[in-house]
From TrEMBL:
InterPro entries reported in the protein's UniProt record: Homeodomain-like_sf, HTH-type_TetR-like_transc_reg, HTH_TetR, Tet_transcr_reg_TetR-rel_C_sf
DNA-binding region, residue intervals: 29-48
Protein name, UniProt field: Regulatory protein TetR
Molecular function GO labels: DNA binding
SUPFAM superfamilies (alphabetical): Homeodomain-like (SSF46689), Tetracyclin repressor-like, C-terminal domain (SSF48498)
Lineage: Bacteria, Pseudomonadati, Bacteroidota, Sphingobacteriia, Sphingobacteriales
Residue ranges occupied by any HTH tetR-type domain in the UniProt entry: 6-66
Keywords: DNA-binding
PROSITE patterns: HTH_TETR_2
Pfam families: TetR_N
């Protein structure tokens, strides 16, 4: 029975993800999702008591997909920089593909930061932990030197987020989520920042004067 429940739940999340990503949260109803699934509304509400709980579960679902995709790549990556660049490219691709989904989460955060923070906080922690694992590989390979992996991963993630916010707010607009045309600009800036960040973590090479 539990296995059947998991299959049905996964099917609901996949169908709801397509609805939310295409039409947005406001223009999607539970009745439409149930119809897409050929489920009764009662069965859908059995799994998710309201649209907000389903929306939060879909957010978790798509972020888990991204994390698993990046983990699979990192396990075979030839360098730390390639692994991190793949991670930020994957995050940007995820937001582009699910634009309406993530745009709504931003508007919810602006309306009620504390409530939305409860939902998004664990997602941030998971991405930070992934960056920490990626940095650990770089340390193991001798590519970088890091005293505190979690702290450095958090600093890196904050830097990426802050750069995005800075680019979006430089014209004093109120939008904290990129327009489709802004994704490439943000990604290009983030890639440059990653290069600078990693150069600062590379092992120092003693000069001949230092050795003497």
């Amino acid at each position: 029975m539990p296995k059947n429940v998991d299959i049905k739940r996964a099917k609901i999340l996949e169908v709801a993800k397509k609805r939310f990503a295409h039409f947005g949260m406001a223009k999607t109803t539970m009745a439409e999702i149930a119809k897409d699934l050929s489920f009764s509304k009662a069965l859908l509400y059995y799994y998710f008591p309201d649209k907000h709980s389903l929306y939060t579960a879909v957010l978790e679902y798509v972020i888990n997909e991204m994390i698993n995709k990046v983990d699979a790549y990192v396990a075979k990556a030839s360098s730390l920089e390639k692994a991190i660049l793949f991670a930020i490219e994957s995050r940007m691709e995820l937001m582009r593909e699910n634009y309406n989904l993530f745009e709504y989460s931003t508007s919810l955060f602006m309306q009620d930061p504390s409530e939305m923070g409860k939902s998004l906080g664990p997602f941030f922690d998971r991405v930070r932990d992934q960056f920490s694992r990626i940095l650990a590989i770089g340390v193991k390979n001798g590519e970088i030197v890091v005293d505190n992996l979690d702290e450095t991963a958090e600093l890196l993630l904050f830097s990426l987020m802050g750069m995005r916010t800075g680019i979006l707010s430089k014209d004093l607009n109120d939008c904290l989520f990129p327009t489709p045309d802004e994704f490439e600009l943000i990604l290009a800036k983030q890639k440059k920042m990653i290069s600078i960040f990693l150069r600062g973590l590379k092992p120092s090479v003693l000069s001949s004067q230092d050795v003497s």
